[in-house]
Write a structure and sequence with these properties.
globular, NodB homology domain-containing protein, TIM Barrel, carbohydrate metabolism, Glyco_hydro/deAcase_b/a-brl, 251 residues, alpha/beta, 6-stranded parallel sheet
Length: 251
């Protein structure tokens, strides 16, 4: 109910500012980002958390003077409001890594209605704002799926849609050797930038692949930065103090 009101109110304000439908659509529609723009940077991104391996990934990044970006769901492998998951999200954020939206329940957004899309976006944005105080400027559509309705919804919410140009393959069952070879191939090609996709919910990703990827990319001369840094943009639309836990913190 609250989400629907927010969406209706925001849409009404934008409509007043841009009465021409075509102009309004251009203004609303989110940018789709498939690659970084700052030369010699690589952005390691991690989807589907928060989950139990997240602190291990953060520690690996920290030990190697690297930064990562975590695209969080609200209720996927775990509920983001579970006390230990709240601690994990705070851990990543407080260590200087970027937190971003992967929507609430990892739904196929392109199959949803306008209100359903906004609800999926709003609920995880609210959780991240409560836990960290930061309102994300980036989101990643689950499965990398989107249509114009999804992009319009993200645009109204002030967010860009982040995809990737290197997929480790962990989510489709690729072996550790196969995942490592993706990074070997990327290093051999040596593009100016790399925007990679991993998932923090797999033990092999956290404990075998991430360290290898960090070493390979850094040895090849890449700086490992957040998505926002690799684009030269701000990671958050606003930053405030985190909130104290209340009875509303549940999935």
């Amino acid at each position: 109910m609250i989400a629907s009101f927010f969406v209706t109110f925001a849409f009404a304000l934008l409509s007043l500012a841009a009465p021409a439908t075509e102009t309004l659509e251009r203004r609303q529609r989110a940018q789709v980002i498939n690659r970084c723009s700052t030369p010699n940077t690589a952005a390691l991104t991690f989807d589907d958390g928060p989950y139990i391996y997240m602190k291990d990934i953060v520690d690996l990044l920290d030990q190697n003077n690297a930064k990562g970006t975590f695209f969080y769901n609200g209720n996927n492998y775990r509920c983001i409001y579970d006390p230990d998951m709240v601690d994990n999200v705070k851990y990543a954020y407080n260590h200087g890594h970027q937190v971003a939206s992967h929507t609430w329940g990892h739904e196929h957004l392109a199959s949803l209605t306008w209100d359903q899309i906004h609800d999926e976006m709003w609920r995880v944005e609210l959780a991240l704002s409560r836990i960290t105080g930061a309102y994300p400027a980036f989101f990643r559509p689950p499965y990398g799926e989107y249509n114009n309705l999804v992009l319009d919804a993200a645009g109204i919410r002030g967010q860009a849609a982040v995809i990737w140009d290197l997929d480790s393959g962990d989510s489709v069952g690729a072996s550790v050797a196969s995942q490592k070879s993706e990074y070997d191939d990327a290093v051999d090609r040596h593009p100016s930038t790399i925007l990679s996709l991993q998932h923090e919910v797999y033990e092999t990703t956290a404990h075998q692949v991430v360290e290898y990827a960090i070493n390979q990319l850094q040895n090849a001369g890449y700086r490992l930065v957040t998505v926002a840094e690799c684009l030269g943009e701000d990671p958050y639309q606003s930053v405030a103090a985190p909130q104290s836990r209340t009875a509303d913190w549940h999935c």
